[in-house]
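To close the chapter, one final illustration. This time we ask the reader to focus less on the individual chains and more on the assembly as a whole: which components sit near each other, and how the overall shape emerges from the parts.
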Amino acid sequence: MKPHEVVVLSASDNLRVADGILLSAAQCEVPVDPGLTWSVTKRTLVGGVQEGVELIEVDNGCLRFTIIATRGMSVLDARLGELRFGWNSPIQQIVHPSHMDLGDRSGLGWLGGFNELMVRCGISSAGHPGVESDGHLLTLHGKIGNLPASEVRVSIELDPPHRIRVQGLVEEKTFKFGLFELWTEVSTIPGSNRLQFNDRLINRSDYEQEYQLIYHVNFGPPILQHGSTFLAPFKSVFPFNEYAAEGIDTLHSYLGPTRGYGEQVYCFDPIADEENDSTGLLKNCEGDQAVAVHFGIETLPCFTLWKNTDTLADGYVTGLEPGTGFPYHRSLERLAGRLPRLASSSQIDFRVELEFLNDVASIARVEERINRLQHGHDRQVNRTPPPDGRDGRNEL
Amino acid sequence: MKPHEVVVLSASDNLRVADGILLSAAQCEVPVDPGLTWSVTKRTLVGGVQEGVELIEVDNGCLRFTIIATRGMSVLDARLGELRFGWNSPIQQIVHPSHMDLGDRSGLGWLGGFNELMVRCGISSAGHPGVESDGHLLTLHGKIGNLPASEVRVSIELDPPHRIRVQGLVEEKTFKFGLFELWTEVSTIPGSNRLQFNDRLINRSDYEQEYQLIYHVNFGPPILQHGSTFLAPFKSVFPFNEYAAEGIDTLHSYLGPTRGYGEQVYCFDPIADEENDSTGLLKNCEGDQAVAVHFGIETLPCFTLWKNTDTLADGYVTGLEPGTGFPYHRSLERLAGRLPRLASSSQIDFRVELEFLNDVASIARVEERINRLQHGHDRQVNRTPPPDGRDGRNEL
Amino acid sequence: MKPHEVVVLSASDNLRVADGILLSAAQCEVPVDPGLTWSVTKRTLVGGVQEGVELIEVDNGCLRFTIIATRGMSVLDARLGELRFGWNSPIQQIVHPSHMDLGDRSGLGWLGGFNELMVRCGISSAGHPGVESDGHLLTLHGKIGNLPASEVRVSIELDPPHRIRVQGLVEEKTFKFGLFELWTEVSTIPGSNRLQFNDRLINRSDYEQEYQLIYHVNFGPPILQHGSTFLAPFKSVFPFNEYAAEGIDTLHSYLGPTRGYGEQVYCFDPIADEENDSTGLLKNCEGDQAVAVHFGIETLPCFTLWKNTDTLADGYVTGLEPGTGFPYHRSLERLAGRLPRLASSSQIDFRVELEFLNDVASIARVEERINRLQHGHDRQVNRTPPPDGRDGRNEL
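The assembled structure is written out below.
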C-alpha cells in the first residue's frame, strides 16, 4: 500500500521522487467513492526553455489541474470534463526560472513566461515595474512566480472528505532584503469542481517587512468570449488609468478578440459575507459555463479585473485578481495605504477558491450569492482614475 | 533499419533522444555513395558553464560541422579534412543560456558566450546595445543566439542528392513584445564542401513587427593570417566609425595578430547575380585555403565586414556578416531605413551558404564570379562614416 | 585500488564522475596513519534553487569541510569534531548560479546566495556595487563566487604528509573584457586542524588587467558570541564609513545578536612575519574556541573586518577578509592606489590558511604570535573614515 503522503521534492533532505503516479485510487487504501478514479502524478518536461520543469498533475475524478512546482507552485490550467479553464498564451513553453530574466525590458521580463491560469505576484513587490525610492528597480509582479519550490509534498486525507493536497514551499529570501517563506497549498476534494488555495506567508526576519501578494487568475476561451460577463459584489470601483476610464461603461461585459484593444484594468473594493468571503464570477455568453473566484478579504481586500481582450494570437484573456493591493508600482501602493506590513517572525494566511461551473443552475446560485452580497450596498463607480494612477501604464 | 528522420528534441511532445549516432551510412538505407561514411550524432556536454549543452555533429563524408542546439542552432566550427574553419575565441566553453546574462555590462553580456563560426543576431534587435526610445535596454546582438531550440530534428533525403538536414525551432517570444519563431535549417549534401542555412522567420503576432537578423560568420587562423584578403562585389562601402575610417585604404587585406588593433568594421552594399545571390570571399595569404559566404540579398541586403585582428589570445578573427541591416543600434538602423517590418502572421526566408575551399582552382572560380558580378559597376568607397555612426562604438 | 587522483569534472574532456566516495583511507594505498579514516566524497543536490549543485566533502580524519564546486569552489562550512565553523545565513539553500541574478537590486543580487564560510570576491571587480567610469554597473563582490568550476580534481599525495587537495578551475572570461582563470586549491593534511587555500590567478589576455580579490571568510555562533574578540597585528586601521566610526572604540570585541546593528566595517594595514604571513584571530568569550586566518600579505596586503552582529534570524556573522584591497567600489579603490594590475599572460599566487582551534593552549600560541608581530609597532587607530569612503554604504 502506497502511503497517503509523498514527499515529492525536498531541498532540505536532498531528495526527489521519480516521475509517475504518486497517489491514486488504485494504490491508496483511502475510502473514496470507488466511482472516482483520482490520482496525483509527477511529470518532468524536456526541451527548449522548459527543460527540467516539474509538474504535479491532480485528477480528483471530476476536475483535473496541473501545478508547476518549478514555477512557484502556479496552476497551469484546469479541466472539468472536456472544458478547459486557463488561457492560450502566446508563450507555449513552461519556462524554467533559469531561463527567465526578470530585469529584461526595464523590468518587464516576467512577460516572457506568463501563461498560467493562476500565478502569484509578490512577495517583496508586485505590480508595475519601476525604480523604488532606494534606487532599486522593482520588476513586474515580483519574483515569487518564477522561483522553484524547495519542498513539495502531496497527500490525501484518510478521513472524509478525503481532501487531496499539494503543498509547496517557495522561498523568496535575500540577505538583508527580506526573508519570506510562502507555504503554498492547492487542494481539492475528490469528485468536486473546486480547487482551493490556502497559502501561509511567513516573515522569517526579525524585522517587520512590507509585502504584496496578488493572485493573478486568468481565463481565455471558451469561458471568455464576446458577450461574456463579469459579476461581483462591490462598494466601489475605479479605472486603473485614463484608457481604462474609456471602457468604464462596459466594465461588466467582454468584447470578442479585438485588434488594438490592449488591456483595461479596474480596481474594486469588494463586499464579503459574514465569513469575510467575497466572490467574482466570469461566465460565458450563453451562461452555461463559468468560473467563480472566491477569496477572503481580511487578507486580500482588493480585487483587480484585468481585461485583455486583444487578438487570439497575441493573448485574449481576462484576469480576476484578489490581492493585498492593486497592481500599481509599490511606491504608489504605499502612498495609497495599500501596502501591508508583516511583523517580525510572524505569519499571515490567504485563501482563494476557484469553482468551475458548467451548468446553468450552479451558475445561478453564484449569481444569487453575488446579488445577496450586493443587496443594500450602493455601487460607487468612479469614472476617472486616481491622480497618481492617471498616467500609469497598464497593468500588464 | 533506422528511419531517415529523427526527432531529436521536442518541447511540444516532451521528448528527446539519447546521445549517440542519430543517422549514419551504416544504419540508413539511403543510396549515398558508399565511399562516404556520413553520420549525424548527438552529444551532451558536462562541466562548468557548458553543463547540459546539446550538440549535433554532422559528418557528410567530406565536411564535418557542429551545431549547438542549446545555443540557437549556431554552428560552432567546421572541418574540411584536417582544415578547421571557425575561430579560437578566448571563450572556450560553450556557454549554456542559463549562465548568460545579456544585460551585463550595460548590455554587452553576449560577449561572454561568443565563440561560434556562425551565430545569428536578432530577432527583436541586433547590433549595438543601448537604450531604445521606449526606455528599454537593447542588449548586444539580441537574444536569438542564446535561446535553446525547442524542436530539433535531423533527416536525410531518400532521393539524390540525399541532403542531410538539421532543423531547429528557436522561439523568441514575450507576451506583448514580439512572437517570433525562427525555423532554422542547416543542411549539406554528402561529400560536398558546402553548408547551407535556410531559415524561415515567422511572426506569430497579429501585429506587424520590426525585426533584425545578422548572420555573424567568423573565421580565425589558418584562413585568417597576415596577408589574407577579403573580396566581394559591391556598389559602395563606408566605414562604421572614425576608427574604421583610418583603415579604409587596407579594407581588403588583413594584418597578422596586432596588439591594440581592436576592431574595424565596414558596411557594404553588395552586388548580386540574377538569382539575387551575392558572395564574400576570405582567402589565406597563399591563396590555397578560403571560405566563400553566399547569401540572398532580397532579404539580406546588407553586408558587414568585421575585422578584429587583435592578438591571438584575445581574439584574432574576422566576421563576414550578411544581414537585414548593419550593426548600429536599432534606433539608428530605423532612422537609416534599414529596419524591416514583418506583417502579422506572415513569414520571410533567409539563405546563406558557406563554401569551404582548399584548392586553388575552386578559389579561382569564386574570384571569377566576384569579378563578373563587379564588372560594369563602379565601387563607391566612402572614406568617412555616416554622421550618426561617427561616434558609435565598434561593432563588437 | 582507487587511484590517488580523481578527475571529478572536466569541461575540456567532457567528463564527470558519479556521486560517491572519490578517495578514502579504505580505497587508497597511501600510508596515512591508520587511525585516521579520511575520505573525499562527491554529492549532488536536488530541489529548489540548489538543483544540480555539486559538493566535494573532505574529511581528513579530524577536520571535515565542504567545497561547493558549482559556486566558485567556495567552502560552505567546516567541522572540528562537533564544533561547526561557518555561519547560519538566512539563505539556507546553496544557490545554483543559474538562479542568481547579480544585477538584481542595482547590483546587490549576490546577497541572494551568500551563506559560505569562505567565498572569494573578484576578479574583474570586488566590493560595493555601482556604476564605473565606463558606465557599466559593477555588481557586489563580482562574479567569481557564482561561477561553476569547469575542471575539478581531488588527490592525495603519496609522500608524507599526504596532503589532500581539491583543485578547481574557475574561469571569468568575457571577450574584450578580461580573460581570468583562477586555479583554486583547497588542501589539508590528514589529522590536521588546518585548511589551506593556494590559488593562482592567470591573466590569459595579451593585455594587462586590473583585478581584485577578497577572501570573504565568515563565522557565526558558536565562535561568534557576545564577548568574542578579534585580534590581529596591524600598523593602522580606519573605519569604513561614519557608522563604523561610531564603533571604533569597541573594534576588537563583539556584541551578541543586536537588533538594528546592521554592520560595521574596519580596514586594517596588517603586520606580517618574515615570510610575509599575517594572522587574524577570532575567539569566543571563554577563549576555548577560535579560528585563525593566516594570509600572505605580499599579494593580499589589506585586511577587512566585517562585523555584522545583527539578529540571529537575519544574520549574526563576522567576516575576516584578506584582500588585494578594501571593499569600496572599484573606482574608489583605484583612486586609493589599491587596485593592482596583472601583466599580460602572467600569473600571481595567493595563500590563505584557516586554523580551527578548540583548546586554550593552541589559542594562546596564536595570540602570542600576534603579540610578537605587533611588538615594536605602534597602532594608528583612525577615528574617521577616509573622505571618499565617508558616505559609502556599508560593505555588505
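Chain B touches chain C at residues 43, 45-51, 89-93, 96, 98-99, 101, 103-106, 108-109, 111-112, 114-115, 259, 310-315, 396 (CB under 8 Å). Chain B is about 10% helix and 40% strand. With these observations in hand, you are ready for the problems at the end of the chapter.
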